[in-house]
């Protein structure tokens, strides 16, 4: 075949012909493979996003449930429910009109800000006790993102709410709001007020709360762990759930995730519909139906807008909630890269034909340059330059094998460097709180004393010990004790100024270095602020056993000018604080 054609022409012709045939076959297979891979990649991404949203929602509801149980068993909640219920009874009659008049109608604050009123100053026992407990519950609602918090006695009377809306001081069994999902949450728990019982409603529009979508989470409250005295209810706005579902990162131009309730109405807003869609827009699709039946999967379908999309779906079930989570992206966007791929393929075939004529590329350069490049890389690796790019590692010949070995060497060097940094960090930081250890703060204190000898800038050393920490460990368990220590560490870090330093030196003992002070009085002011911050901040972690702080202060140069003496003075001052009243500072 082609015997009469010179080899100088025949060989290029044969090579080019087979190259073209190979390119065409490869292009067709590549097109098909790319289409499948783009779909598989999009499906994988949607499923990953779906699982991420689901996990975030589960964590949110579990956190609220845990928070609800904790506060239903706290002394503060039980005392508030008992005392406010007694005060309610002392009003004798017309409690609804009296309390709504005092806290809503005559409330000097605007609608939506009624919770700002702490004491109606009407001389009643109720107002006295409202003044006692309202700041706590108002702060709890604000910090945890609850729209409202309710205390309801066993007869269904709403003896307390934070927001003071029209449901305040009404009866949930026979009052104006007896047909709402707030009343339903109370009634179900009230009928079975056993320990550990809780009930969560689905989101519905709630008229007293400006007709916004709200859900109610209720648990019974027991006095002394036995006697049922009422119900604690959290009102949960949908804005957090909506914000989770509205994250568009990784969704491209046409992707979105939505929540669908068992009524096939949206529980989150759509990126592509105007205005509020929650509890208004209907999602009657095959994916939504499958997810609501407990199925998980992905498929192409026409979505609620009439657009062809790839839709991934999974159920979300938590207590009484039966929702569907759907992640979808338009099919046109998924396959859009194929158009560019076809153009690139045509160009590559043309370029490939030209490249075949350049087969006489100098082999020496093909081998010598990579080896010289790797020699430079090895030299840089020897100097611990670990960010270099080994660009020839994809070759399949002996040069490629050398590059791959160099990649392994680089990886080992990176791991060794990382391990060394981790060991250095672990040696100087407490694993529980993340604070520096005794060794690191001792070095810092030595540096400060040296700096003082040069600059004569005063500084303070504070020795801190948590009061009642052993009681927390023995009574509530070491896991609560660990939470106390971690919270204390965060409070220290949040209270200190720039340039100050704090370390945990063992158990419940901490050392603080306060720089840039003018005199001892300024150090004591800072110390008192730290004591107050610890007392306030740890109430949320250990509500039943108060954990406070005894703090000893030593000032350089007034008390001492060397490291050992300053620590000893601060330690002795701390023990004086312990012997006085605890929860204080001493010098």
UniProtKB/TrEMBL annotation:
GO process terms (BP): signal transduction
Key words, A-Z: Membrane, Transmembrane, Transmembrane helix
Pfam name, any one: HAMP
Family annotation (SMART domains): GGDEF (SM00267), HAMP (SM00304)
Domain GGDEF, residue spans: 457-587
Keyword Cytoplasm: no
Transmembrane annotation, as ranges: 12-31, 340-364
Cofactor: Mg(2+)
Keyword Transmembrane: yes
A single GO molecular function term of this UniProt record: catalytic activity
Domain HAMP intervals: 365-418
GO cellular component, one term: membrane
Coiled-coil stretches noted in the UniProt entry, renumbered to this chain: none
NCBIfam families, alphabetized: GGDEF
Protein name: Diguanylate cyclase
Organism: Enterovibrio coralii
